[in-house]
Amino acid sequence: MAGMAVIQIIGNIGRDPETRFTPTQRQVVSFTVAVNRVVSQGSDGKQEVTDWYRVTCWGNLAEFAANYLQKGRRVYVSGRFAPRTFTGQDGQPRLSLDITADYLIPLDSPQRADLGEGVPVASTSRGRSPAGELDTDLSEEDLPF
Fold this sequence. Notes:
By secondary structure, the chain is mainly beta. The chain contains one helix and seven strands; from the N terminus they run ββββαβββ.
């Protein structure tokens, strides 16, 4: 029986989405998301640590990401999680935290991101909203987590 590895993150986009096309002209968009967390440092207090995730979007979701996301926007991403290891240019082993996105929801207002009115707030790889129609005026206080 197959297992499942799903991840949900909220963070800030670290670089503008990059668009590519497969040989069959299927659109693929990738970008990074920075997720900050606080860790205890014993008696020294707390320190903020940033984890970086590589996000890949396909099809309709890739089109959405290319058109409406940009560096600095706050975004919710849900998808399949697949960490992978590789050897860096310096010969040291590295870990990449890769997500193939199933859902994206920009969490900041379009006005704050200077994207103008009419920006959809949710899209999926199948072109439907994960929860039907969503309120476009969400704030962080509105989130249940």
